[in-house]
Request: fold
Amino acid sequence: MLAREFGSLVPGNALKWKALRSDRGVWTFDVPDQMVEFAEQNGMRVKGHTLAWSKESSYPNWFLMLTRAEQLVAIRDHIQAVVGRYAGRITAWDVWNEAMANDGSGLLGGVSEDDIADAFRWAREADPDVVLLYNDYKIAGSGRKSDDVFAMLQRLVAIGAPVDGVGFQMHANLADAPPSATEIAANMARYEGLGLNVTISEMDVRIADLAGTTDERLEAQANYYRDVVGVCLAAPNCLGVTFWGFTDRYSWIDARHGAADPLLFDENLAATPAYFGVDRKSVV
Ligand code: XIL
Reply:
């Protein structure tokens, strides 16, 4: 189904620090290697997720024991090794994930913009051709965090950091006023003005808390998927849409929130109305 329905694959966890390097000095590449091979055999592109984070919980314990200076060296080594290993095979990387606070208080976890710029430079050195992205949530529409990330990327571009674009995660809850298509389009346009690409990088759409019948909820979900994907299709700088999983059976949202049914295929791998709402040209 993956090979038939999708043009691109993102390992959801297998390229994260905790999966690749749970023990110091040990690298566990078998799962991502298999995924990259699967993608190549099926003519799919692969995006890597993710080289660095700001959240401590995203790193293995041994990394957290290092000093800040040692951590930066470890991040440099990590980027060189992982981007280098998949150079020419992984076509885009989330370089830094979720660095910005939600409440306007700036970068999280003692990370500086210089650290983030360095990470992009190291990734560029390891693969001159790969698309390098900053990825975050609550930044697809308007609002404080969206503006903070935009301002940061503006500064990174100004100093010549090799940033190619930004990923809007797009974990949406229809009962919680997700960003409108108009807002997302305006945000994509301001990034275009900056010379940056955008992607919808982790889309899923929760409908469990929405009023109405099941059919009505599924229809609202299909409309939202159609609208957001349509915005990407219409934006000259939108590289594509990634769904955060393809079946509700294994969705992280379902695992956290019960039967939230966020994806294009249901628990039994049957296509939902959302699947038919999405213009498949955009599924890359
Ligand atoms: C999620 C995975 O889907 C889960 O399997 C895992 O338990 C937690 O992480 N933002 C991100 C992704 O950038 O890495 C997260 O993925 C979802 C939120």
